[in-house]
Design a protein that fits this description.
Elements: H1 2-7, H2 10-71, H3 93-103, E1 107-114, H4 117-120, E2 124-133, H5 135-146, E3 151-160, E4 166-175
Antiparallel strand pairs: 1-2, 2-4, 3-4
Length: 177
């Protein structure tokens, strides 16, 4: 072998060794990082497949919940056609609010129309209410008040705890015509 090595010119051996070194350098600099990246992508694909299998297993539960949620739509509150309260019906305001309180299981402690509010804002009438009862009945009371066609807005609600029941102070603005 030594004889054949002596027959090959020295320059050819150097060129072949440099090509071998370049090939080794390319494999270390390019191919090895690509192999590592491919391994990372393989691990990521395995993780995604696991998540996909999980979601496939949970799909029937999701579909059942989705159907159950669609079959129970939330009830919409009734909204009457808006109108204005005539001046001759102003005297019935306390009776109307007491009736709504009674129908919702609340006790109307006081209903005070604020006549001075007509001077400040013509066309709007302020009523101060104090009702007593529990929260679920208060919700029913507010729904009943919301059904009044001449209700402009509820300006304020103040809640005070009472030993027997909650006391609610309301400021309600009504539209006057």
């Amino acid at each position: 072998m030594l004889k054949t090595l002596k027959l090959v010119p020295r320059r050819t051996v150097i060129i072949q060794l440099s090509w071998l070194g370049a090939l080794l350098l390319v494999s270390l600099a390019v191919i090895y990082p690509m192999q590592r990246a491919a391994g990372g992508l393989d691990r990521e694909i395995k993780g995604m497949k696991g998540q996909l299998d999980e979601q496939k297993a949970l799909l029937p539960i999701y579909e059942a919940l989705k159907v159950r949620n669609q079959t129970a739509p939330a009830g919409a509150l009734p909204t009457p056609e808006r109108s204005k309260l005539s001046r001759r019906l102003v005297s019935t305001i306390p009776f109307t609010f007491r009736k709504i309180a009674r129908e919702s299981g609340m006790e109307a402690v006081s209903v005070t129309p604020d006549v001075a509010s007509l001077l400040n804002q013509p066309g709007q009438f302020l009523v101060h209410l104090v009702v007593r009862g529990d929260f679920m009945n208060f919700r029913k009371f507010l729904v009943g008040v919301g059904q009044l066609p001449y209700l402009e807005r509820v300006e304020g609600i103040e809640i005070q705890p009472d030993p027997y029941a909650m006391e609610y102070k309301l400021k309600i603005r009504l539209a006057m015509g």
